[in-house]
Structures are given as structure tokens and as C-alpha cells.
Amino acid sequence: MNAPARITLVSELSPAPAGETSHPDHVVAVVVLASAAVYATLRYNVFKGVPWSDWPGYIADKVIAVAALLLVALAGWRKFRGRGSTVVLMAWAGVLVIGHVVLSLGLFPGGYFDKFMTGGRATATGGMSLLTGALAVGLLELGARRASGWAPRGVTVSMVGLLGLSAVHTAAPGLAGWFEPRSWPGELPPLTLIASVPALFVAAMLTRQRGLWR
Known about the structure:
The chain has 214 residues and is mainly α.
């Protein structure tokens, strides 16, 4: 198995110019992850009253999932602008996605994802979220292994597909709550909204810029 490829994901999308340090992007990734952690802690543990014992699993799963999608969206925005490397951002996103998958699989039997199941079977919403999530992970793996040989248009299509699939995966379970601001704990918007909207926006901008569907 090519483990480094799994982690770097589509690192070949935008190679860093010679001599350019990637350290600032590590800082960006840490700031995004820390911000997501603070926001999730306030929304769920402080205002919603989720037990603190759920933080290392349930809340942390939300944190790393949201941070991963925001980092992919930021990488897509750089591609849209044609400026900056995506290598480090996508590497961080890859690590976080792996963590999200492992944590989610561990949490699933515990009843944390009640919107996904009813009567022991997946709901339509749950099935949609699981399907798009699986396809997104598959696209990440494909990009990790093959993106270096793709034409620029193919790379952009893969980025748009990744952003779209990931946004649907993230938004599906909590979409109804987007339109009920009175139900938001501490008047803080859902994490699914915060992560999905930027991803869809960047995907739309890339699509329009490249004329992908003409």
C-alpha cells in the first residue's frame, strides 16, 4: 500500500514553487482546526449541554470533519485564484478525513447518528450522506494515486467533485436545522452549514471559471 499517497491526497494539484516554505500552511491548518474545536465546544458542550465526556469522540469527530472540508475548500479557492500551493492543506485534510472515518465507524453503533437510522435501517438522508461520503473518500484515494498524470481540466473536475460530494455528505443530516435559527444553541449556526456553504461556493466558482459543464 502507498500510505504516503493516501495522506497527501491530491498533493500534485499545485506543487509548491522551488524554495517556498510550506510552514505557513501548517499554521493555517492548525488555526482552522483549533477554531473548529472552539466553536464546536461552545455550541455543543456549553450551549447545547452535550456531556463533556462526549468531547473526545462525538464532538472531536465533528471538529475534524468540518476542519477537513474547510481546508479542501481553501485549497479549491487557491486553485480558483491560481495562487498558492495546495500540498500542505490537502495533506492535513487527508489526515483529518482518515480520523473522521475511523471515529465515525466507532461511534456509529452508539446511537450518535440517529438521523441516519430508523428501525435498524438507514434512512434516505442517512443513505445519501453515507454514499456521498464513501464516494468522496474514493475520489480522494484516486486523486492521491493518479492526479499527477491528469490534465489540468481533470484535476479541476476532481476538485469540484470532491467539494460537491463532501458538501452533500456534510449537509444532508443537518440541512433542516439550517432554516430554524431559533433552535440554534447559543444562536450559533450549525457546523454543517459553516462547512458546506464555502465548499459549494468554491465548487461553483471553479465550475464557472473553467466552463466545466458547457
